[in-house]
Design brief:
alpha+beta, Cyclophilin, eight-stranded antiparallel sheet
Length: about 150
Amino acid sequence: MKSADIHTPKGVMKVSFYDKDAPGTVDNFISLAKKGFYDGLAFHRVLKDFVIQGGCPFSKDMNDHRVGTGGPGYKIKCELNGGNQYHDRGVLSMAHAGRDTGGSQFFICHGRTNTKHLDRQHTCFGKVYEGLEVIDLINQGDKIEKIVINEE
C-alpha cells in the first residue's frame, strides 16, 4: 500500500491512498510528487471550515495573476464510483474546472459539514491519517515543502 507525507511549514500530513477506488488519480498524484512537481507550490486557496487547496504551478509566486488556474499540461478523468467517494475531514480530492478536467490541483477537506455537495462530483483519492491538526494550521500562501511517497 502506498502512502505519502506532505511536508509543510506547519507540520507533516501523512496520507493513505484509495488505490482501489481511484487508481488513475492516485497514480497521477504519485507520479507528479515523485517528479517534485508539488515542491514549493503554495496552498493558494484556504477556506475556513471547507478546504485547503494546492497544486497550481503558478502558486510558486502568489502574486502571479494566474494562481489557481494552472495544471500539469494534461487532464485526467474523474473516478467517482468507488466506495470511498465521500468528502470528510482529511480527505484528499481532485480539484477541477468541470468533469474530467483535473490534473494537479487537489484539496484537503476540513470536515464533512460543508463538503457533502462535492460527493461523486470530485474524485476522492486519499485521506490524512496522521497530522490532521496541520489542516487547521495552514494559511493561504503556506508552501508544500515536499511530498514524499512511501511504497510499503
